Amino acid sequence: MNTPKSHKRLGTFSRRKLLAGLGAGTALLAPVVGRIASAADEKIRRFVIVLEGNGFEPVTMLGDSARAAINKTLGDDPLADNARWWSSAYKHEELLEVDVMDDLKTAKALSPLAAGPGADSLIDKAAVILGLSSRVSGGGHSAEHGALSSSRSVGGVPGGPTIDSVLGAFPAVRGETPYDVLRLGVGTDPGRPVDFMTCAYDKGKAAPMMLQPHAALAALFGSVGDKLQKAEFARRGELLDYALADVAEALKPLKAGSEPRAKLEAYRASLTLLKQRQTTMLGLENELSEALATAAPQLPDLESDNLELKGPLATFAAQMDIATAALIGGLTRVCVIGCATGNDFNVTYPPSVFVIDKAQDGEVKESVDESVRRHDLEHISSEDPHAVLALHKATRAQVTAIAKMARLLASTPEPGGNGGTMLDNTVIVYVGDNGEQHHSTGTEFPVLLIGGEKMGLKTGGRTLVYPGISSGKHRQLSNLWNTLGHLAGHTELNEFGTEGATRMATGALTELMDG
Amino acid sequence: MRRVVAPLVLTVAAVAFASCGADGESGESGTPPTPCDTAAAAIPFIETSCAIAPCHLPGLQFPDLTRAGLAKLPGMKSKRNGTLLLTNGDPAASFLYRKVSEGLGGDDGALMPLGSKVPRDEAKNISDWILQGAPTDCDIPLQDQPPVADPNSLDQGALFTCNAPTVDSSPERLRRVGRREWTHSVVKPDADTNSNSIARDNPLVTPRNLQYSTFTRGVSIDEATLDLFMLALPEAPALWTKRNADQDIPNGFSSGTDTWSVYSNPALNCMLGTAMLEAATMTTDCIDTYVDTLLRHGVLFRTPTDGERTRLTTLLTETLKKEDPTDSLRRRKTLHHVGQAAFLMGGALFRSEAGEPIVGDPAGRRRLTPDELALALGNVLDSHPVGSPLPVKLRLGDPDDVDALGLAAAEKQSLGLLGRLGLIRAKADLGEEIYSPAVIHEIFEKYQGGKSPYRHDLDNLSQKISYSGKDEKPGTADDVFIRGEYWVGDRVQEFFREWLDYKAANTSFKDHPGSTSQWHVPDTKPDRYEDTNRGYTNLQNGFYGHESTLVEQLDDTVARAVVESHANGKANGTNVFHELMTTRMWRLPSNVVNTNEIKCTDNSGCETCMPLEPNMPNVKRYCLDSTGVTTRECKTDSQCYSRCTTLGLCGSSISSNTTTTLRPYNLTGNIEHTSEARWHEMPLNERRGVLTHPAWLGAHGGNFQDDASAVGRGRWIRENLFCESVPGLELVMVEAKLIASDSTRSARDRLVTSVENEVTCMGCHSKMNSLGYPFEIYNHAGFVRTWDHIAEPPDNQGEPDGRTTIDNLPDTVMNTDFTSALDFIDAIADSPYARRCFIRQAFRFFMGRDEVLSDACTLTAMEAALNSDGSFFSMLEVLVGSESFQYRSDASEGGTR
């Protein structure tokens, strides 16, 4: 393992600095101060959910030993060599637990977890889960908010809160961080700044996901960014100052104690809080600068014509890096990073997606010079094996970015001084937003988990295969979200989602819980 | 939107207890409690658990248990069983105590507080208090939070009794701008989010605890809302920063629509014109004109105060000075920054309705200023702020379309500069004239609604309103219109969506929506790609094709009822309420629009994409039918009518999503692709009025066919047609769950078995279930049930059961037996009580507040207008002309006056 480098209070704000930044508005910030006051002995819990909008295929997560274990249950009808999904084939009635050393690195998309030059293995800190369904979310091209809410989004309106919102609202998770949840994404239109189709605060109340890495970086690290970002950060402060001055004047003729005055005072209080956050972030210059240097996000080159430099995978990698910096900088403890999620699935890959690593896949596609849209790639994959390899390569690229985040967190000591690393207190979940295939029935959502050892997550390089959907012991994606709730210290989170009568079982996936 | 009465906090008892004994010794161990000690423990509990809406407040059907009411309780008898409510010194002889303790008998009703399964510990405090003489004059601190007034607790008869002359007014208020209004103020549609617009997704939504989106009591901007608003803010001033798209700032937002106020406004040439970067053209006049125009037509929609004007002028002037002369985008950046600042102003986000003093008014009232009245009037009819930038290009039939008037250019420009709802703006600019009833009538005539197939009122500008034939573009003379030709002002439409609360029909998850209908399929299979579900889902989201959604179909049906009753109500002797409850003329989608109407039995009878000469690669391909007739070029079968649909007609690649859209309406025939055919008279023995429309039924139904849909539907009827409240879920202290789902039990059976024999449950459910049972002839998604689950093998199928016996509606004529929703709705349509409740709902929405007793003369006048000619618009016109609408007083909003 890499030696953790020296670190001075990254991941948590200095109470002194924050209080110094509060100024005259302190009375308005009582809840925040309360959180800070109790922060000294808090247990750190972080959650990162990485979501692919086209789903990813179960076979990309399937190690050789896990395949053998499944085949053993299938008798004379084993998985075909080219099988990509098989949710209807499961016959086992009890959980299959495959615990074979380094099996995960034999899976098509999990090689980035293995040790390499200058990189420690993450295999033992990871686990793969197969066999979870979420039919309530609908599947199809995209379940929109459904995957993270275990409910059905209809007409683009979420059917319930997504798990990130629930986790971010737990005081034991948010602690003193300025942002309850950081939501970053990748869309098909680089001009579109935010999207509301993946996460939700509540039923009918969608939450925005920032799609532009440049804007996200400016919003989060503008106070320590380049000249342009600092200028944008400063302009935002000027706008808040202008509004505060205007509201102060508007308040003058309003009678004390009147409702109109109370409304305007509430608005002034909100303006003050945002302004104070600006001040606070300015006071954390060193911490945020160091976090940013650690994660070193490579922003997509928007001026380039080269999709390698600004396409969805490059944008996704940048968003992952920004999220890593935000976690290390202590700006948040819950992140969602989406790629082509929320029905915005038809991203365009550069031609290189067809250039297959021969060592990895044993085949090379020659002379491809056209970019390809994900939707087309999915459809032609039924006839073109190269398209299948390309899809798997895209999944592997995402795992590469996830592994980068995990390794950076693993190399950063936990600021609380509990002897572990930030990865020990961070659960990373990688899952698709519509299930096992392009036109999904929502019957299987493969999951990759990394980290979280000190939070009580049991990984160990295992593969867990839950019984198929017709079995009484089948489990659903909602059980995974319940599990995250339990890891967050909220063992009452047992019926997340709106599965109603179709819920197979309440509670967490106990096989993932340590002890 | 649903009414939620705020739960009261049960934390005051300890505080009260500690403060009751003035000597500070009463709480010490070993000291006998004084009468005030017991009162301090008992009274706050009663007040916070019982004296709440809609239960034990003054004037309601149940005993008043406020502090004042408790003092009058000794000697009073229970209406339920005739026993004494409170006998000082004798808890056992006090019904008040027995209701919260053990030993309730058959006529005693549910244990209190409602929702309790076992007696609460606090019952002992009430016993002690009664033993000590039940004193009510102790010095017990008042609660921090007063009881929330529930308008449904008011005596409806008193609300419609006008003891003239009255001096009416409403509380002064500051109305926070709503989501849709803000979207329109930045000249964006409230439709699907554009690729580069997030204006629709601004966070200025009304909290869910308020019944209507127009309510503003306590609505401000909290930290989270402001955080989200800051994401939308950069888009707000885009329109005001440039004239040409090629001058975009790299901020991701386009300038949007060309408007008279900006794009075509010559007065802004000095700031936005081609010479705008020439320093010589930048004069004080130019800056002043720009600031004034931005504030009047983009931000405030009224005359700015001197301070507002000065502050923004200063900011603009200072920012102009800082421009980098080498930056070609400098002006746009300046205006973008200044514009964002303007959109953060207090006046940009809050509209004042304070009024100005009336000389000599004995009640000290104030009257809305012409500017304030203009905004308020506009807000009744439309969600575009009065005077907001008017697009140069509008849909045919738009009342503000100045192009259609055939005027000279200068006159057109002058009218265009008035902005949206220009007639209101013009009248307000004339001052007092806007108060004139004749002017208000003129305004209503222009903007209230009418008939136009072009439907300028539709906000979804990307939605096709018409097309001339299959796969052809719209705009030809023989256009076929998808939507109905009746339109109403979009605020009026919002009222009906919110009162009937059917917007959720497009977003509610329905498992196997065709379950128990004639299109039932076993629910053991995933329903994603099942035929009925495909059609139902497409009715919800309109993804495939161009037909309207469920909600839009009910919108059109409602609009027709409103407009027709306005036109014909007087002659026909009917009224809009009756028409809404009974209309069977519904707007439906065409289910054959994506077929070519060629009959088939399988795909082989439909078109195939192939070359004219077989086995010839690399030649043009054509859609060929079984006769070999070619129609169009193609590349794949998906571009042809290649699928044999469930209708037995060949359909296009999306036809599987559009040919089953009549199933929720239980129609087995076809609706042809014509404007006229989409109006369909529904069968008398199946449907009647808006409450039997799948949109309403789905919005108020559960997710699964055997869910307790009857509860939600019954509750809506109780609260919105009879203006009585059902206690909130916050009072429920038992695990309120239905028994497990199984194939031998219908939804009704599950509900009856779980609830009807439980006194605890029936305390609330008696107000809902019997009103919802009639609708069990429809399933959770609004399909007509052809059978329902019963415990009779072998197939567990029985007749749907919509029978009910009602015994507790305030309109006693309604307390009788009904066989189903159909005869039940006939009775509702004829109920004067329900019609009055409808008037109260309209009052609430358009006033943006609950009614109070002093609004009686306004409500009475509204009723008289409705009874006179049956018109909803006439009733509204009376409302906006009333003193309740136009006058203001000092009382805080939502309080009593």
List keywords for this structure.
heterodimer, A: 515 residues, alpha/beta, eight-stranded mixed sheet, disordered N terminus, B: 897 residues, alpha+beta, four-stranded mixed sheet, 32 helices, 22 strands, globular
Description:
The complex is a heterodimer of chains A (515) and B (897). Chain A has 515 residues and is α/β, with parallel strands linked by helices. Helices cover 35% and strands 11% of the residues of chain A. In chain A, strand 5 and strand 6 form a beta hairpin. In chain A, helix 7 (213-221) runs parallel beside helix 12 (312-328), helix 8 (227-251) packs antiparallel against helix 9 (259-283) and helix 10 (285-295) packs antiparallel against helix 12 (312-328). The two termini of chain A are 25 Å apart. Mean pLDDT of chain A is 85; it is low at 1-41. By secondary structure, chain B is α+β, with helices and mostly antiparallel strands. Among the domains of chain B are: 1-148, no CATH class; 491-589 and 681-829, no CATH class; 595-659, no CATH class. Chain B has 32 helices and 22 strands. In chain B, helix 10 crosses helix 11. Chain B is globular, with a radius of gyration of 31 Å. Residues 1-29, 245-252 and 469-477 of chain B have low confidence and may be disordered. The interface between A and B is large, with 59 and 64 residues.
Question: Helicity level of chain A, as a percent range?
Answer: 25-40%
| Overall residue-averaged pLDDT value of chain A | 85
**Biggest sheet architecture of chain B:** 4 strands, mixed
The total count of helices of chain B amounts to: 32
Overall pLDDT metric of chain B: 85
What oligomerization state is this entry in?
Answer: heterodimer
Q: What's the alpha carbon Rg of chain A, rounded to whole Å?
A: 23 Å
Our count of helices of chain A gives 16
Major sheet: arrangement of strands of chain B? 1-22-5-4
Computed CA radius of gyration of chain B, to the nearest angstrom:
31 Å
Q: Stretches of chain B where pLDDT falls below 50 for ≥5 residues? A: 1-29, 245-252, 469-477
Query: What is the number of E strands of chain B?
Result: 22
**Structural class category of chain B:** alpha+beta
Helix and strand succession of chain A? HHEHEEHHHEEEHHHHHHEEHEHHEEEH
